[in-house]
Structure formats: C-alpha cells, structure tokens
Design goal:
58% of the residues lie in helices and 2% in strands. With 503 residues, the protein is mainly α. The chain folds into two domains: 398 residues, no CATH class; 66 residues, no CATH class. The strands form two sheets. A two-stranded antiparallel ribbon has the order 1-2. Strands 3-4 form a two-stranded antiparallel sheet.
Length: 503
Amino acid sequence: MSPVITASLAAVIVYSAFNLKFKFYNKIYDEKNAKHNLCLALTLIICLSACAAIFYCLYNGNLKYPYEIPLFYTNAHEQMFDALLKRQLNIDIVPNSMLSKLNNVYDWDERLMYSFEYLWDRVYFDGKYFSYFGLAPVLLVYFPFYFITGKVPAAQTVCFIFSVVAVIAIFFLVIKLFKIFVKKVNLPLLILSIFAAQAGSLILMSQSSADQYYISVSSAIAFLALFLLFTFCAYDSKRVPKKCLFFALSGISLVFIVMSRPNIALYFLLAVPVYLSVLFSKDYTVSKKLLQVFSFAVPVAIGAAFVMWYNYARFGSVFEFGAKYQLTVYDVSKYSFNLSLVLPAFYYYFFQFPEFLKSFPYFKVPYIVLPSIKTYVYLTSTVGVFSMPSVWGFVCLPVSFGEKNTDKYKKSVLALSLICIIIMAVFDMCFAGVNIRYLSDIALVAVLFASVMLLTFFASFDASSNKVKFAVHNLVSILLFLSFVIGCCLIVVNERNNLINLK
C-alpha cells in the first residue's frame, strides 16, 4: 500500500476518535468568538507558511536589467517587460527571415522541415514577435518590483506574490461564502474547507511549478478569488457605499482576470444573480441601484477599452488576443468545438484519477493517450477535479435547492457553478487540450462550491441525533481532508516536479 494512503487512513482514524470524544460535530462557528477567530488566523498562517516554504525552496535570485542573458532566452513576461520599457508592443527580437518564407508558418511540421531558430510559443504576426500572455503580471508585479528594487522579479518571485494574494483571498472567500449559503457553519468543517480550497485551487501547485505559463495561471487564480470575494462581499453588504466599493473592486478584478487568462472570464456568470438581486431589490431606490451598477460597469468599461485597444494595436482586431498566431505544436487557428471531444473532456477534466505508488514520490499524475480521436489534441499528464473527493459534494446540489431559506439568487449561483466548470472543461479540451495546469481553470470554483454544498448537507442534519450528526460530519470531514491531501501531493508531483528535482 502507498505510504500516502497509509498516512491518510491513519489521520482519518485519529480524527474520527477526536471527533467522537470532543464532539466536533457540535462546534458552531461564532464570528464574535475570539478563540474561533484565533483558530482561523492560525489556519491562514499555516497556508501562508506553505507559500513561504515553497518560495524558500525554489528561490534562486531575481534578475538584473538589462538582462545578463540574451533576450531570446528570457520568458515571455520578461520579454514584454523589456518591450514596454522600450515603449513598444512587440518583443524586441528580429524574427528569422525563414519564417516569412513558409507557406504556413503556424504549422509545426513545416517549421521542422528547416533547421533555424525561432521564439517558441510566441506570437508571430506581421513580421514581428508578440506575446499572447496577459499583461496583468507585467503591469502589476514586474514594473512595481523593478521600480522598488531595481531588479526584474524571477518567475518564482512573481508566483509567490500571486500565491500570497490568492491564499488570503481564498481564506476570506470561503468564510464569506459559508456565511451567505450555510445557515449554521461548523467550525472544524470550516477550517478543513479552507485547507481543501487552498490546496485544491492549485494555487500552491502553480507556485511550485513557477515559469512563464504558471505566472499567468497564478495571476488568474488570484484575481478569480478576488473577483468572487468582492462580488459576494457586495452581495452581503447592507450599506450602499460599501456595496459600491465592493462592486468597483469586483469590476477591477474581472478586468485583470481577462488580462491574465481571458477564458476564465466565463465565471462572470456566477456574479449575474448577485447583480440581478440588486436590480430587482425593493430595498433600494432607482438612483441607488444605478449607483451600484455604475460602480461595477465603469471600471469594467475602462478596462475593456484598454484591452481592446491593446489587441487592436497589435493584431488589428479588438477581440484578438494573439493565441491563434502562436508558434507552437499545432496551428491553433484550426481548433474548434468538436463534439467528439465532449466525452473525453468529461473524463479527463473530471474523472481521471492519480496513481499511488509504493516508492518515492508515492504519487503519479497519469499521462493521457487518446488513440481513437482523429483530430489533433494537445495531450500531456493530468488528473480530474473529482480526484479531490470534496468535489463530489456537487451530488448534494438537490439538498441545497431544497433548503427553504435559500433564495432563488443563491440557488442560481450554485447551479451556475456546476454549469460553468462543465463549459470550461469542454472549452479547454477543444481549444487547448489536456494538461494539469488547465485543471486550474475549474479547480477553485469546483472545490469552493462543492464545499458549500457539503456543509449545507451537514447543516440539514442539525435536528438529528448525535450519532447521525457524527457519522455525517465524519464523512464530510474525510472528503475535505482527502482533497487537501491530493492538493498537497500535486504541489510536489506535477508538470514541472521542481520540488522533487531540487539539488
């Protein structure tokens, strides 16, 4: 038996004994209780300590500018930082003339026919190199860090910064969601949910995998967490000035989601019921409703105008982010929705499970093979989101819908959370492929709202006997704990394996 499984079973047995003795199932969270808040503070400190530990293990110094290595060998974000400092939108590298002579420069097979050097996985358009990676990390981390320290942050530093932001945002987001959706929040389950959400969101995995790809992933997770946090803070606030502030921050976060990973903006749909609850509320006058609407709409409009200008200035289209012009393993412009990929999307994004090994590193992320699919699909290794057992909490959705005290707006959010992750999985499968980092597009939302449903399920047994409450509480605790375990395994064993390969 794998040591991971053995250790997990031992932890479950010990926890179950303590649960029975100290009656964890009867510990209701009181936000005014100092001891309860101290427990939560310690939970946050532990999570932030994990960020610090990963950073300490991987940190290898930041970069001098001008770079000590040729610009060609720096990552896409470092190249864009250099370009913007030089007041240009294209990367300051002259492409090899062979690129302009190919029939289809975006066809990898055609490029392989000739032996010449070019920038891998960058955009080639109109005889110039560009980056399709979002600008959010460059504008929010690279420039401030450079002006403060005089150095350019390494990938490990950038991912660490986003990881800290995400961990703090996820911590408060879990508490806020449970306050809104669960009538009585159990303290031990709240703490376990925070740990499960932190590890299950894959933000720590992204930090441990730090490179140009995971910088964008970390940025997207951080701003998605902030967007959801500010949106539900606005929903929960009673005073109009606070609602306006949170709606404005929500709008700003949405803009930076688009400037990190544009496809993640799909989760804007989760906020629609919140906006509708304001528009149809009888508690506000028309002027106060408009004030809240404009608080969100104005920063979004300004951000959208900037993004559209940036796209148009580079590619002549306000909606073109450059992905279809990238020099990578396939001509990305040929990607399209493919009905034959829907079932594989369900399997690999939801039901692909990891393997547990008897020898180090005791955990394996399986490599994917799709021999029966005729079209090209980018395939690497991954696990599905149901590998984290708490995500099975979605089966409790009918219980959440059956709650008499849950209004239609809250029910809409829960239903949309499931709909959105399904759409995102199919979209990623068709337009990106299979990769463990693509799982981050659905992991945070899946773990968060499945946990909400699990705690709602437990709360529905409030009037039951202690034996029943203990059994249900133990089940939910185990699901949350095992999600945390799987998330922690992915910090060590992943696409990059940086922690395993430490010298």
